[in-house]
Amino acid sequence: MPRTLPLLRGRWSRGGRGGAGRLIVLGVVGTLFWCGLFGISWRVLRYFKGIEDIGDLLAYKLLSMILVVSFALLLFSGILTSLARLFLSRDLLLVHSLPVADHRIFIARWIDTTADSSWMVIVFTMPVFLAYGLTFGAGTIYYAGTLLALFLLAVIASALSAWLVMIGVMIVPATRMRGVVILMGVLLFVALYLAIRLMRPEQLVDPEVFDSVLAYVSSLQAPSAPFLPSTWASDSIQAALAGRVANSLFHLAISASFAVLIFCLAVITADAVYFKGFSRAQTAATATIRRRGFSEPMFRFFPGPVRAFTVKEIKTFLRDQTQWTQLFLIAALLVIYIYNFDALPLEKSPIQTVYLQNVFAFLNMGLALFVLTAVAARFAYPAVSLEKEAFWLVKSSPLSIRNFLLIKFFIYYLPLLALTETLIVGTNLLLKVTPFMMVLSTVTVFFLVPGIVAMGIGLGAAYPDFKAENPAQTASSFGGLVFMLTCAGYITVVILLQAGPVYRLFMADLHGVPLAPIVWLWIVAAFAAAFILSVLAIILPLRFGEKRLRQTHL
Amino acid sequence: MIELKDLTKTYGNYSAVQRLNLRIDKGEIFGFIGPNGAGKTTTIKMMGGVMAPTEGVVTIAGIDMQAQPQEAKRRIGFIPDRPFLYEKLTGLEFLRFTADIYGVPEQRFPDKATATLSTFSLTDWSNELIESYSHGMKQRLIMAAALLHEPQVLIVDEPMVGLDPLAIIMVKNLFKRLASQGVTIFMSTHTLKVAEDICDRIGILNRGRLIASGTTDDLRREANVSSADLEMVFLNLTGNSA
C-alpha cells in the first residue's frame, strides 16, 4: 500500500500534546481502572466457579454477553468514528484534492477508524479475559487465540460500520446522519439500560429466588445467534478455555474469512460511492429557524450579557444533537438511581432498619454527588471549550473573563442543583429517613453543588480545548481528569468531615441522650470546616480558571 | 484616538512585534501592510484586547487597554480575519447576542438590526443558521455585528478576504463614510489596492518593526520610487523583489 501509508502519517505525528505529567496521571488512572475491572471479574468468575453444575455455564453465558456488548459498542463507536473520519473531518478537503484513488483514501481512513474506535474496548476487556484465563487455568493458546479473536471482532465491526456508513450517507447526508445515529444510539442505550435494570439481575445471586435461576439455567443452554460475529469470537474463546484447539481455530477461521470478505466489500463500495457521499456531505442544506422577530422575550429582565449568554447557551444546546440527546441519558439515570433505592431489601437486613435507612441516606449524599460530578464533567466542564474558536467574541467584548465565567457558572448551577436535590429528596423519601437526615442531606448538597459546578467551569477554563469537536472529547481530556479527581477528593473530604459528627448527632437523637459541650464544639468545627471548604471550592477554581483563561491565546 | 506606545510582543526568544509606536487620529483610516508573519495580526489582537502585550501600552479613545479593558473594548468594533461564530445561532440571533453584550438599547435594536442586515445584504439570510453561511457571508455578518453598537474605533484584520467584488466596493464606501462621521479605522490588508484607495495613511510592518509610515506619496518618496504603484514601494521597503 505505498500510496496509502503516507495518508496515515498525520495520525502518528499529530500526538504529543501535553507533557509527561499528563501521561503519568492518565497512565495511573487507566491502570487503576484496569486493575479494578480485573479484580471484579476475578471475584465474579471465582464465585461462578464455586457453583456446582452450572458455574461454567454461567461463566460461558457471561462471556457470550460480554462479547455481544463489546461487538455492539465496537459497531456503534465504529459508525460514529467512520462518519467523522470518512465524511466530516476538516482535513478531508485536502486529502480528496490529492491524486490518490478513492479506495486508497478509504483504506487509510479505515485503518485510522479501526484503531480509534476499538482500542478502548479491547484494552478494557483485556482484564476480563485475563480473569477468565486465570480462573479456568488456560494455557498460552487461550491468550493468543483471545487476542486474535478480539482483533478480528474489531476489524469486522469497523469494516461493517464503514460499509453501513457509506451506504447510509447515500440516503441521508453525513451531517444529518450523525444526529440520527446519535439519537438512535442514545435511545437504544436508555431502553436496554432500563430493561436490564428493571429485570433486577441482582436476584440471580439471591438464594431465595434460586428456583427461578434453575429455570433460567435451562434457557442458558440455548445456542446463541450463529451468524453473529460475537458468537464466533465467543465460541472460539470458549473452545480455547476448554483446551479444544481445533474447535477454537475453526471459529477463528470463520471470523477471519468474514473479516476479509467484509473488508473487500467495503473497499469495492468505497470505489463506487465514497466520493459521491463525501460530495453530498458538503452540500447538505441546514434548517431554517421558523420563529422570526427581534424581541427575545425569554430572560428579558436579565442584564444584557447574562441574557446574551443564557439565550445563546440554551439555543445552542437545543439545536445540537450531540447535546440535547444527552437529556435522555440523564432522565434514565434519574429513574434508575431512584429505582435502585426502592429496590433495596432493607427489611431483610439483620441490622435495625431505621439505622440502616439513615446510613444509606448519608452515603447516598456522596453517591449523588459523584453522579453530579459525572454529569458536570459532561456539561459544566466543557462549557468554556464549547465556545470553540468563536471565543474571540468573548475576548474582544467588554465582558470581563470573571463575569463570563460567573455567567457560565449560574447557567449550569441551577439545573444541576435541581437534578441533585431531586436525587437526594427522591431517595430520602423512599428510604423514609428522619427529618434530621433529610435536612442534613439537602443542605449539604446545596452547599456542595456550587463547589462542583465551579470546579467544572474553573478547570474547564484553565484547560480549554477550543478545537475539540464535541463535549465528550473535552470531558475525557487531561483537564477533565483533573476535574474528576479534584471533585472526588472534595466530596470524600466533606463526607469524612461530616461522618463522625452526624453519627453522634443521629445516635443521640435516636437514644434521646444529650451531647457533651466538647462534642458540640467538635460538631460545629467539623461543619464549619466543611462550609469553609465549600466556599474555597467555589472561589479558587474560578479564580484559577480566570487567570489561565486570560492568558490563553487564540 | 488610537495610540500605541512601545508595543511589544515576544514568544520565548521570538519577537513578533518590537517597540511599535503609532498615533491615529479621529476619523482617520490607517492601513497596515506587511509580508506574511510580519506581526500585523498580533498587533491587531493586542489593539482589540484579545492578546496581552509583553510590553507597551495600547490606548483607545484615551483609555488604557491594560488598565480598563472593558471600557476600551466598549468603544471598539473588532473584526478578525477568520470568521469564527456561534454556528447554531441565526444571523439575527447573533446580532441580538452582540447587542446584548455591548448594551445596545432594547428599543433601538430592531431598527439597527434591519439597517445593518440590509447594508450587508443579509436580510434574506437573517433567520438561517450561521453554519449554512458561506465564508464571505460570515465575514459580512461579523462586520454588521461590529457596527451595531456604533463604535468609535474599528479594528479590522483583512476586511476583504472572502468578499465578492460588490461587497468589497460596499465595504470600501462604508469605511469612507464611517471615517467621515468620525470613526477611526485601523485595518491590516494584503490587498495593496484597497490600502491605496481608502487609507489616509499606511504603515509598513516588517519582522515586527514599523519600517515606514505616511501617505502613499510619503512612502513613494521614502522608497525612492517615482511613478510606481504601492506594490513596488512595498517590495522596495521590505527588501524583497518580485
What's the short version?
With 554 residues, chain A is an all-alpha fold. Chain A has 20 helices and no strands.
Task: Give structural notes.
The complex is a heterodimer of chains A (554) and B (242). With 554 residues, chain A is mostly helical. Chain A has helices at residues 5-13, 20-49, 55-88, 92-97, 102-136, 140-171, 174-198, 210-220, 229-241, 245-283, 304-319, 321-324, 326-342, 353-379, 392-395, 401-431, 435-462, 471-475, 478-511, 517-551. Residues 12-17 of chain A have low confidence and may be disordered. Chain A starts with a helix and ends with a helix. Chain B has helices at 40-47, 69-74, 91-102, 109-119, 135-147, 165-180, 192-198, 216-222, 230-238; strands at residues 2-11, 14-24, 29-33, 55-60, 63-64, 76-79, 153-157, 184-188, 201-206, 209-214. Chain B has nine helices and ten strands. Chain B is globular. The chains are: A mainly alpha (554), B alpha/beta (242). The A-B interface holds A 285-290, 292, 294-296, 300, 304-305, 307-308, 311-312, 315-316, 319-320, 388-390, 392-393, 395-400, 550-551, 553-554 and B 45, 48-52, 69-71, 73-74, 76, 78, 80, 82, 84-86, 88-90, 92-93, 96-103, 106, 109-110, 113, 127-129, 131-132.
Helix percentage of chain A: over 70%
Distance between the termini of chain B: 36 Å
Low-pLDDT runs of chain A: 12-17
Figure out the total of helices of chain B: 9
SSE succession of chain A: HHHHHHHHHHHHHHHHHHHH
Strand content of chain A: under 5%
Count the beta strands of chain B.
Answer: 10
| Largest beta-sheet characterization of chain B | 6 strands, mixed
Q: What's the total number of strands of chain A?
A: 0
| Most residues in contact, chain pair and counts | A-B, 36 and 40 residues
Write down the overall mean pLDDT of chain B: 87
Q: State the shape of chain B.
A: globular
